[in-house]
From TrEMBL:
Basic residues bias locations: 1-15
A single GO BP: spindle assembly
A Gene Ontology cellular-component term: spindle
Biased composition (Basic and acidic residues): 78-108
Disordered: annotated segments: 1-62, 78-121
Domain SAC3/GANP/THP3 conserved: 66-353
Matching InterPro entries: SAC3/GANP/THP3, SAC3/GANP/THP3_conserved
Source superkingdom: Eukaryota
Protein source organism: Amphiprion percula (Orange clownfish)
Lineage: Eukaryota, Metazoa, Chordata, Craniata, Vertebrata
Name the record gives this protein: Si:zfos-452g4.1
Length: 399
């Protein structure tokens, strides 16, 4: 008697084509330029029900607060309020109350049987933009919120919920661009400010994955929108600086209209990218001195490799017992002070003698052990540009 083989049960994530294991955390520097926007990643299946077509299938939010009333009540009952959302004076209570003026809708993964298209729980574009501005002005830029890793975790999650509402409603136009621009600035700034923090507090790969998706979405809006975008030059340059060496990023810039491609910020980014591709760290670091603060934040993740290349090239080019290179001159090339330059040389096995002369040797050059090189110590080229800029002005683009 032949038995029918039971079909293998396929999970919801497998039906969606979700990557298995830890693949979702892999860095792909070309991801932002992939065709389409990241909307397919977190879009909820109910956004277009079977049998519905066109604009009628797209839900329109009616929630006028940053957090829907039902969610606020549920999180109060389940004691799941963040301390930044609690009503002042109730934070020490057994069950704190939520402040309707401070609570923000949290990100929740799509689940079977859950209707994520309820208009009463979706915020319209104007409210979403207001929410993002609140997260920047009252949370991110506040001098009273410590530590900043907690601030980042809260804002990062709430920005994901904003993106989720945008995807479900297929938000486009000026509000969409304004939200994406602020989000990209926040994530670029966070990649610099939280560099070197423990993984349990800040994961640079997760930050990078989301930043690439937001960049892809934003650049897609620039390409398809008919209205003018005054900040396009800024973000085209930021995308290239963040993705130095990426073939797709370079190709994207070269395919821009001549008027935009010849803009000062993009021309400078192209020159830095060319120096990176040619492995010319001296020229790259010299050009980096002309970048503004946020542009240098986008570049900073490439600086460690750039300085390493410079020391390696000089270790071969000036490899001689009788040849000494002035430490002060090397510090100028590396955009570091002499103390940090000597420390960096020591990390790579390059000798600095008592006369403050660098003795290069190709045999002595060695790669540091994992975790021995602390990138955060060598951020002076970025921190010096911040000066009196506030976090609020940086993320709003007023710097």
């Amino acid at each position: 008697m032949n038995r029918r083989r039971a079909g293998r049960r396929i999970s919801h994530s497998q039906r969606r084509g979700a990557p298995s294991g830890g693949q979702w955390r892999q860095i792909n520097k070309d991801q932002w330029q992939d065709e389409g926007t990241p909307q397919v990643r977190e879009v909820v299946g109910e956004a277009q029900r079977p049998g519905q077509h066109g604009r009628e299938a797209v839900p329109r939010g009616t929630c006028q607060t940053m957090c829907p009333a039902r969610e606020l009540r549920n999180r109060e009952a389940q004691n799941r309020l963040h301390r930044l959302e609690m009503l002042p004076g109730t934070d020490r209570d057994r069950r704190p109350r939520g402040d309707p003026l401070r609570a923000v809708k949290e990100y929740s993964r799509p689940a079977a049987g859950k209707d994520s298209t309820n208009p009463a729980e979706l915020r319209p574009p104007a409210v979403l933009l207001k929410t993002v501005c609140y997260l920047i002005d009252e949370i991110t830029a506040s001098s009273h919120q410590h530590p900043w890793t907690e601030v980042y975790s809260f804002v990062f999650d709430r920005l994901r919920s904003v993106k989720q509402d945008m995807i479900i409603q297929r938000v486009s136009g000026s509000d969409c661009v304004a939200i994406l621009e602020r989000t990209v600035r926040f994530l670029i700034y966070a990649s610099y400010r939280l560099c070197g923090e423990p993984l349990r507090l800040y994961d640079p790969r997760i930050n990078d994955t989301h930043l690439q998706e937001y960049l892809s979405w934003l650049l897609g809006c620039y390409a398809t929108g008919s209205e003018p975008h005054p900040n396009q030059e800024e973000f085209q340059a930021l995308a290239l600086l963040y993705n130095l060496g990426s073939v797709r990023a370079t190709q994207h810039i070269l395919e821009l209209p001549e008027r935009l491609r010849s803009a000062p910020a993009i021309t400078l980014a192209l020159s830095i990218n060319q120096a990176f591709l040619e492995r010319n760290p001296v020229r790259l670091l010299r050009l980096a001195g002309r970048l503004n603060f946020l542009q240098t934040c986008a570049l900073h993740r490439h600086l460690a490799a750039c300085r390493r290349d410079l020391l390696l090239i000089y270790s071969h080019g000036f490899s001689s017992r009788n040849c000494c290179f002035p430490l002060e001159r090397l510090s100028q090339l590396l955009s570091l002070d002499t103390l940090l330059t000597a420390q960096l040389c020591q990390t790579y096995g390059v000798e600095v003698n008592q006369d403050k002369q660098v003795v290069f040797s190709k045999a002595a050059f060695s790669e540091p052990e994992q975790g021995k090189l602390h990138c955060k110590l060598y951020h002076s080229i970025v921190s010096e540009k911040q000066k009196d800029l506030t976090v609020q002005s940086i993320i709003h683009g007023c710097a």
